[in-house]
């Protein structure tokens, strides 16, 4: 009597010892790729939205035109406008605050929702946060007032012009990436149990048998 022919296992899938069909390596890598593409898109969209918020919340400095030159923090009568000078620092400070909150929230969300590969997530978050802070700055700069130095060349003496939102320092642009990585790594540290469960799930996704409990936890 001939033995029954075993049922063929579809390509791209594997079966664990309990007889359950599990996705193979191709499906696992496809899921990892789609997951991290979604991370890049979300960072880009939220970064642009953060730029809109920055432009809405900040008040640019003002200045007066004198002989074709924009004099920031000065009034028409030649006196110093201290509030306007303070707003020069407010542009940078508001940008750093907005990007810090944005990066922290996004980093935590990635840590909670994307558990396929923590190492890949760190790399993708680093690159995506650089894109996010670039879009944040460019969107805010585009929505804000135009460059007053260019307008001052054609304006009459005594014309008051608002300054733009340009930032000539490098340090504010590293706030969002740093905040995102802090949110990501701290969330990983406080979710080691979830990370271990994700590692076991990845073994099954790649067609590997699950680790027996006695082997996973030494006596």
Description:
With 219 residues, this protein is mainly α. The chain has one domain. It has a 3-stranded antiparallel beta sheet. It has a two-stranded antiparallel ribbon with strand order 1-2. Helix 1 packs parallel to helix 3 and helix 3 packs antiparallel against helix 5. The longest helix is centred in the N-terminal third of the chain and has 33 residues. The radius of gyration is 27 Å and the shape is elongated. The chain starts with 12 loop residues before the first strand and ends with a helix. Keywords: Membrane, Transmembrane, Transmembrane helix.
Unreliable spans: 9-15, 193-197, 201-208, 213-219
Query: How many beta-strand segments?
Result: 5
Q: Give the C-alpha Rg.
A: 27 Å
What portion of residues is helical?
55-70%
Strand order of the largest sheet: 4-3-5
The total number of structural domains is 1
Structural class: mainly alpha
Order of helices and strands: EEHEEHHHEHHH
Mean pLDDT: 80
Helices, by number, come to 7
Roughly what fraction of the amino acids lie in strands?
5-15%
Region (Disordered): 1-22
Transmembrane segments: 31-52, 85-112, 119-140, 170-190
Keywords: Membrane, Transmembrane, Transmembrane helix
What is the topology?
Elements: E1 13-15, E2 21-23, H1 25-57, E3 62-66, E4 69-72, H2 82-113, H3 118-143, H4 148-152, E5 160-162, H5 175-189, H6 192-205, H7 213-216
Antiparallel strand pairs: 1-2, 3-4, 3-5
Keywords:
membrane, transmembrane, 219 residues, 5 strands, 7 helices, mainly alpha, transmembrane helix
């Amino acid at each position: 009597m001939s033995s029954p022919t075993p049922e063929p296992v579809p390509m791209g899938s594997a079966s664990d010892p309990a007889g359950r069909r599990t996705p193979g390596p191709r499906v696992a890598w496809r899921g990892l790729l789609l997951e991290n593409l979604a991370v890049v898109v979300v960072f880009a969209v939220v970064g642009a939205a953060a730029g809109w918020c920055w432009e809405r919340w900040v008040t640019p400095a003002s200045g007066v035109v004198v002989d074709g030159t924009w004099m920031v923090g000065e009034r028409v009568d030649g006196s110093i406008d201290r509030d306007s000078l303070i707003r020069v620092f407010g542009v940078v400070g508001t940008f750093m605050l907005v990007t810090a909150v944005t990066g922290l929230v996004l980093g935590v969300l990635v840590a909670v929702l994307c558990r396929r590969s923590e190492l890949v997530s760190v790399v993708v978050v680093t690159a995506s946060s650089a894109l996010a802070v670039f879009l944040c700055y460019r969107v805010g700069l585009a929505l804000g007032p135009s460059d007053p130095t260019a307008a001052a060349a054609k304006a009459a003496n005594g014309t008051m012009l608002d300054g733009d939102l340009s930032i000539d320092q490098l340090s504010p642009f590293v706030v969002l990436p740093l905040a995102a990585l802090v949110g990501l790594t701290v969330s990983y540290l406080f979710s080691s149990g979830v990370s271990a469960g994700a590692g076991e799930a990845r073994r099954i996704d790649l067609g590997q048998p699950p680790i027996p409990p006695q082997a996973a936890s030494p006596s």
